[in-house]
Amino acid sequence: MSAQRTTRRETLENLLTSLQNELNLNPSKPLFKLTYTSSNWPYDLTKSSNSNLKIAILDSSFNPPTKAHMNLLLQSVKNQSNIKFFDACLLLYAIKNADKTPSSSDAGPVDRLLMMESLASQICSINTKSEPTFNSLQNIAIGVTTHPLFMDKAKAIHSYFNNNKLSSSYSFDPSVIDSSAVEPSVIEYSAVDSTVDINSSTVDSSIIESPIIDSSTTTFNYSPQIYLYFILGFDTVVRLFNPQYYSNIYKELDSFFKFNNNIICANRDGYGGQEFEEKFFQSDIIKEIIGENEKILRLKLDDDIAKISSTNIRNSIYNIDQKKIDDDDNDKREEMIKNILYDFCPELVAEFIIQERLYRNTR
Predict the structure, then answer these.
(1) Which domains does the chain possess?
(2) Continuous segment of H or E residues that includes residue 88
(3) How far, rounded to the nearest angstrom, does the alpha carbon of residue 300 sit from its chain's CA centroid?
(4) Which is one Gene Ontology cellular component term of this protein (predicted)?
């Protein structure tokens, strides 16, 4: 392990410890911290700080980040007809997940944040000159939040911006980011195709992930200039609008959406199909809560993208690592693992996993 990576690990470990200590003082208060930013995040240098700020948020477990994660963000940004629709992007990781029980084979929080940094570097390296809609990808950050529930995440992010007031020359002081922000390095990387050649047919919920809203409280001090767009899978959106999670779904979801929170809904392969999706979006509950407001933007992903599975990647690596191949032919085993990683993960993420021997039987 390089000295630079060792130092970075220590920085992230200290940040997570500090975050946990702060959470212990007030367990009910949602917290959000930045761990990594591109140099100009969140505003483009040409944009006035008096303007509204629109942030595309990819919320996932990133265990590991895949080409599906990358394409979800790219297509969410590219999908908008207005070239300047999004100003910035955020990769969001919740250290606690409401829907999943941690496994011993999972990557730890620090490894996930480091993989997210590799993903961010890969995204920032994309040449935006030929694709102006990708400009917001140059303004990318990584954030970590303490609470798994959807409303709590929105509260924490709005609170963060409220605590770091906008100024005439808006920028974050590095000290506010716990001295852990780093600028992504630029690498040579060709424009990402919107389709990925994959073999797996299993859909993994870790591609897009966000739990339901916490119905215990629905008000928060939001930032009037900040508009959040959470990228969610269709299955999560269905759960978001399920009345069983609320005491008063209309009041609680109305409160959420009116505080500048929006959804980008991506189709999920194998979940109801196009006919079911159309029926859902024409349902009375959607019409009553959303009305004519464009609070849910729909995104159509290529079917192959939705089939890339973080779970399948982890399981494949673990299983190959345990196999006895040609009398313990380690070279063949390593080659098989590398092929899986480079097929399904962005290059820099694959390299990190290989170097750190993540998801192996023994590390």
Answers:
(1) 3-309 (3.40.50.620)
(2) strand 88-94
(3) 18
(4) nucleus
